[in-house]
Automatic annotation (TrEMBL):
Region (Disordered): 1-20
Residue ranges occupied by any Enoyl reductase (ER) domain in the UniProt entry: 8-337
Top-level taxon of the source organism: Bacteria
Family under the similarity heading: Belongs to the zinc-containing alcohol dehydrogenase family.
Keyword Oxidoreductase: yes
Protein's name according to its UniProt entry: L-idonate 5-dehydrogenase
Keyword annotations from UniProtKB, A to Z: Metal-binding, Oxidoreductase, Zinc
Cofactor(s) the protein requires to work: Zn(2+)
């Protein structure tokens, strides 16, 4: 089979690998679509994502969907041909979580994630023609949800988890700073969860257009105008430390700020004084728990995620696709890869 493999910074290849065979409790998925995430771009550009560094070649991709091709021994409740997406996380070991975070499996100290170099050996992702997954990680797509949409279930789950971290949104005013793919999906998730008014802010006009298509009532081009004032609930989705001062000033006194954009793992200057003087509750949001199921239900119920997609490439053009996804100045949305050989 063919797979999109990163060998080092700027070294991406379409490699031939043996066709995998599912073992007990596993299923073989014939992949159809994959979405490119910022971590994929980081491995491609730098050979690392956060503190995880490549030490040997690795298949990229954790936003994937396809169809079950074969079942391993003992698997029930699934059948060949069934379209599925994949929950890409698998906690390592059986150490229970402390009572204070019981059930929050995204906070396990050790989690293997598709397309991650955090462990040795690395965890291959799903940008390949076939991938074996544990049966409990396969999530059947609801009727009417195509595999192209299913590849967006993982980032939508990230957005839904962030929205849930904020608490009740019904009727409340929401600001989303950063309208890249995650920010645009946070807009959609906030609207889906009953937010009264949703404002999206970004530097790039194309991203603001996507945010409007995903349900934003108002957009702000922060290269030309300031953020709104006294917003009850703010989602920071840009991950830019330089934006934090303005975002904190935009948050109402006593308001809530949810940090969903990944901040750098190295020291970076940021103006944080308003956090104290405005008594803001600043909440982190990391990946998701089981919100991938909620994402699929939301799509089944009519949440249209297609406006967030800006480009589609064949697997053979993966290097071009990653280069496009890596260009923040262009303001592009989600870039998808077709993984089954079709164009």
């Amino acid at each position: 089979m063919r797979a999109v493999v990163v060998h080092g910074p700027g070294d991406l290849r379409i490699d031939e690998r043996p066709d995998p065979v599912p073992g007990p409790g596993e299923v073989l998925v014939a992949m159809e679509w994959g979405g490119i995430c910022g971590s994929d771009v980081s491995y491609f550009r730098h050979g690392a994502s956060g503190t995880a560094r490549l030490s040997h070649p690795m298949v990229l991709g954790h936003e994937v969907a396809g169809r079950i091709a074969a079942l391993g021994p003992g698997v029930t409740g699934l059948a060949p041909g069934r379209p599925v997406t994949v929950h890409p996380a698998e906690p390592v070991g059986d150490q229970p979580l402390p009572d204070r975070i019981a059930g929050r499996t995204n906070l396990h100290a050790r989690v293997r994630y598709f397309g991650s170099a955090a462990f040795e050996p690395h965890t291959d992702g799903g940008f390949s023609e076939y991938r074996v997954v544990r049966a409990h990680q396969a999530r059947p797509l609801p009727d009417g949800v195509r595999t192209e949409q299913g590849a967006l279930a993982e980032p939508l789950a990230v957005a839904i988890h962030a929205v849930r971290r904020a608490g009740e949104l019904c009727g409340r005013t929401v600001l989303v700073n950063g309208a890249g793919p995650i920010g645009a999906l946070v807009v959609a998730a906030a609207r889906h969860h009953g937010a009264g008014t949703v404002v999206a802010a970004d530097l790039a006009a194309p991203r603001l257009a996507v945010a409007r298509a995903m349900g934003a009532d108002e957009t702000r081009d922060v290269s030309r105008e300031p953020l709104p004032e006294d917003v009850e609930v703010v989602f920071e989705a840009s991950g830019a430390p330089a934006a934090l001062g303005a975002v904190l000033r935009a948050t109402a006194r006593g308001g809530t700020l949810v940090q969903v954009g990944n901040l750098p793992g190295t020291p970076a200057p940021a103006a944080l004084g308003e956090l104290v003087t405005r008594e803001i509750t600043w909440i982190g949001s990391y990946r998701f728990v089981e919100e991938i199921d909620d994402a699929l239900r939301a799509m089944r119920d009519g949440l249209d995620v297609s406006p967030v997609v800006s480009h589609r490439f064949a697997m053979a053009d993966a290097a071009t696709a990653l280069t496009v996804a890596a260009d923040p100045a262009a303001g592009f949305g989600k870039v998808l890869l077709r993984l089954d050989g079709r164009r």
